[in-house]
Design brief:
The structure is a homodimer.
Chain A (H helix, E strand, L loop, with lengths): L8 H19 L4 E2 L1 H8 L3 H9 L11 E2 H11 L6 E6 L3 H8 L8 E8 L8 E2 L2 E5 L3 H8 L3 E4 L3 H14 L3 E4 L12 E4 L2 H16 L4
Helix pairs in contact in A: 1-4, 2-3, 6-7
Chain lengths: ~210, ~210
């Protein structure tokens, strides 16, 4: 593939949504889709889809649309999902256990290989037949299994310490559920799942709507 | 306040992060903060913070910085968090129960007032002493309590039906954990919590990093 412009992060973040929508289409037995139809499913314009995909080469044919399976394979390749990424989860409270039980984390390029907690009462218990290990074993598991990805479902008060531990162990990408922004060195990606912040941004619109400012 | 430009959504989404950081500062006993210091805590530049806040008026003084409590009050006012928003949760699987138990949903402008599930085996059970009601009661509860906000923790396969039900009941803002994009009419905001999509956007960077493209 010829060298193209570097795609902005917002484009990279949309690719998994395209991929998932294409998987749903395949499940429905649809093998060809226009950018218009694909866009309607994910509330993106057809022009946006074409522009996003143009960063990665030529896909689809004018007037024919995309071959669903081919486009899905392309996007999975771009996202690095043709390989399986081992992933660990730190924090096994209510949320951590729900995450560990979520089947989505076991599929599509991801494989949960370790659960960790710093609470001695939890270490040795298991979640869906996966044993909870002590945080002290993070480094060993990460190195033995070549883990680069971690999910952090810990309280805000220990999120920075756990981040430091993960980074020292060799983790390069962290998905954090802790309600605090952590500091990580260059070359380590941290993303946040932050439902309260999302809800608080929606109350802005609700409040304005209620005062008829819309 | 004089009429200023309409702030873009990306600014509205950052405001809850500013507010939370200011709350942490108060807890630490810090009463004055520069845009530089505030920015360092949330990985945003000082210039970005000043620009974001400029949409809403004049805050802080040159060389003195922001009064933490005052700025927090301003932002909470902007976000509509000076009032309490009743919120309901639909779907009480592992994830729904973890959400229902999360204390964050009971504080800072939000009050969980109803849990719903369409599984007859779950209806009548309770989570942290809150009774699970049938989805058939959503409309009644939403109307009686004037609920505008809902969290949806249901499988992708029923997310659209639940969305339609919520919208018909009068819900105006939905935070969805279902891994699918739903359709909602104008004037209804839907936001997504989508950990798999986030992880799949991070594997892009990991894959490129591993092939030394960075």
């Amino acid at each position: 593939m010829e060298r193209l412009d570097t795609p902005p992060d917002v484009v990279i973040r949309r690719l998994p949504l395209y991929a998932r929508s294409l998987r749903y289409l395949l499940q429905e037995g649809v093998h060809s889709v226009s950018s218009q139809e694909l866009g309607e499913r994910i509330n993106v314009t057809a022009a946006q889809i074409r522009k996003d995909l143009s960063y990665f080469g030529e896909f689809g044919k004018q007037g024919i649309g995309y071959d669903v399976q081919k486009l899905l394979s392309h996007i999975e390749h771009i996202l690095g999902l043709t390989q399986e990424w081992p992933i660990i989860l730190v924090g096994t409270g209510h949320l951590g256990q729900a995450i560990a039980r979520y089947e989505g984390f076991r599929s599509r390029g991801l494989r949960l290989v370790g659960l960790f907690d710093d609470d001695p009462a939890k270490v040795g218990q298991s979640v869906d037949s996966m044993l909870i290990l002590s945080n002290e074993e993070i480094s060993r598991v990460v190195q033995e299994q070549g883990v680069k990805l971690a999910i952090m479902a810990v309280p805000a008060s220990c999120a920075q310490d756990v981040t430091d531990l993960l980074v020292a162990a060799g983790i390069r990408a962290i998905l954090s559920y802790a309600p605090i922004i952590v500091q990580a060195p260059e070359g380590v990606w941290v993303r946040y799942i932050d439902p309260i912040a999302v809800l608080h941004s929606m109350t802005y619109y609700l409040a304005r709507y209620e005062s008829n400012l819309f």
